[in-house]
Every structure is written in C-alpha cells, then in structure tokens.
Design brief:
The chain is mostly helical. About 75% of the residues lie in helices and about 5% in strands. The chain has one domain: Protein of unknown function DUF5063 (Four Helix Bundle (Hemerythrin (Met), subunit A)), CATH 1.20.120.1550. It has a two-stranded antiparallel sheet. Helix 2 packs antiparallel against helix 3 and helix 4 packs across helix 5. The protein is globular and about 55 Å long.
Amino acid sequence: MESNGREEESLYTKEILEFAAIGVQCASLMEQARDKAEFVEQTTKLLPQLYLVTLRLPAYFYSPESDYIEEHITEEAYEIVRQRLASLLGEEDAYLSAQSQEMAYSDTPIAAFISEGLADVYQHVGNLLGILRDQNEEALLPAVGRCRYYFFEYWGQTLLESLTALHHIYTLQLQAQDDDEDEHQTFEEEGDEDSTYEGIY
C-alpha cells in the first residue's frame, strides 16, 4: 500500500500543483469578473504567471488521434465566459492582431477580441483543472500532455496577444489615475492659497 501511495503522489508534481494554483485564480477571475479596472489589473498580473507555470508542466505524451480525454469546459461555459468578458471590456475588447493565422491571406492586421482569447485560455486551463479536481489519475498524464500540446499549438500565443492588449488598457488606466491625482493635488494647493489670502484680508 505504501508503494502505491508514493506512486499516486508522484503524479501530482510540484509543477502540476503550481499550475493548478494559478489556473484556479485565472479561471475564477474570468467567471466572476464584475469591475473592469480591477479585472484588467489582476489579469495583467496573472497571465504571465499562467504562461510560466504552463511552460513548466511535465512533457507527457499526448496524441490528438488516439488519446480521448473528457472536456470539462463545455461550449456553453465557454460562451458564458466570452460574453461576460466582452460585456465587461466594452469597446476596448477589440484590438488589431498581426499574429493571427489569417494574416497569411491579408496585408493588414486582423481584428481580434480579448474576450475570445481569454475564453480560449479558460477552456484549455479549465479542462486540465477538471481532471485534477476529479482526481482522475488515469487521465491525468495525457490531460497534462494535451494542455501543453495546445499551449504550444495555439493558446500560448493567444494568451500573449491578449496580455499585450490588456497591458495597453492597464497603462491607460494608470495614466488616468495619475492625472486624477495631479488634478486633486492642484485643487488642494489652490484651496490653500485662497485660505491664506482670506486670512490676510
């Protein structure tokens, strides 16, 4: 029994547990996001961590042709997250992508959407999290392999493009905050001057 216990425990490597910890934070944020500024700030900080922990996942073998693994994120769940994020981001959801595969047939950047990119990330991360949550050890290794396979094929690039677009929004948010603080400080200084003059006269 002890040897079996050690074998089972070894499936849940440090790298897989680190992925789970960051993945849960990202998935929860996309499912529950309500405040745009807070969502942009937190996502901008979490996505680089998600990219890194996915790179560190064990390189288990996965074959799209022969390995069937249950998908925990349904198309309905995907669409709910996509619509939520599209509504939250509003006009800033859209950006121009120069990395899209469709660029092979176009001389100009292609319109893309942060909400679609993050929903794709959510789907692939959520599928592996579902296997981990169910403690499905038989499916765990190919599920990790599947997550890595599509990360390198597709959603890793999607993550980085979405992060770039979010970085732009976040930078504008910070500039707006700085402008508000400068305005407030100027107003306070003018108010101090007025009170000084009142005292003189």
